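Hi R.,

Here's the chain you asked about this morning:
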Amino acid sequence: MKRFLFILLSLLCMSAADITAQQPTIESLNRQIARAEEEIKRNEALLSKIKGERAITQSELKLIASRIANRLDIISSLGKQIDICARDIKQKNSEIKEINERIGVLKQEYAEMIYAAYKNALLNNSLTFLFAAEDFHDMTLRVNYMKRYNRMREAKAAELDSLSGVIKIEVEKLNEQKAQLERSKKSRADELVTLRADEKTYRNSSQRLAADEKKIAGRIKQQEREKQNAQKELQRLVAEEARRNASVKRTEAEMQASVKLSSNFAQNMGKFPYPVSGGVITDHFGKHAHPTQRGLIIDNKGVNIAGEKGASVRCIFEGTVSRVVFIKGLNNCVMVNHGSYYTVYSNLENVNVKANDRVGRGQVIGSLPTTGDNDDWYLHFELWKGTTFLNPEKWLAR
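And here is the predicted structure, written out as tokens:
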């Protein structure tokens, strides 16, 4: 019995381990859904606050697009949940079938043992069996045999009880997974309805914005070129600062402090708070198409985080301010050194720090613009390691 249960539990554990290693779990998918839902809440809250006098702006359109992307993430996660539940239900049904077959065999064996025991008791075969012993030693062996027979019968009964308990637990798990499957299917259906509504809003808003901005297409392209040039200048300054910082002679203690700071920074990958409270990423890292201007490609070396007008901008980790500069097209920029890492906060209207200031995690270093329309209320945020820029989205908590 113990050996059978050990094998059964081992197979179940191995199966679970394989699933965990190869595929996401219901719990991890629920965490992804919760993060996407939280992003949607921030998105909707921000969208309701920044609506301008115009019918639609680029910033609003990007927020709607971001909301659609999060809806798609939720639908994808729910689809994976449904696949996991369907696979687990199939597996549980197979396990329950195997256990039932084992119980059937045990019941047959137990019934035969009970019948044999009844016959022995009825015909006094047990006494006959004992008194037929040739000597005392033979009788002792026969007594021990009968004891083992009775223990084996008791073990069969215990094994039946144990397997009945196992199958009860498996059936409960199966019912839970079926309920989870139905919940996931309903949630996905609801999300699909909402997604279609968001897509319709985006399509209509995009058409209105494109018609509005077609008149000023030349100016938009000029603005984007200025932003790209400003970003190149920012990259040049950050790389220059990183090279200068690397060439500075330091004491052993200063070197150790720098290495420790870099290590602590790296250990927080994926855990850093957004530098703008309640902010939403509207321009992602890397190359992507402009939301309304065909053929215009944006190459973002960081991320743009939309926020409320005049929102505070906070440093994501402790460090030292390396530079505070003004760059046309990106307004005021603050560079913060974190050992071998740098965070860069651009498009600030006001700055609260100066070069060589020590700053802490969460400290306000400036604020977003309070003028212009809501397309201007964003933080351009970059993250560097030495002279190499990194994707900030992999470092910020979601």
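One quick note: The longest strand covers residues 319-327.

Cheers,
M.
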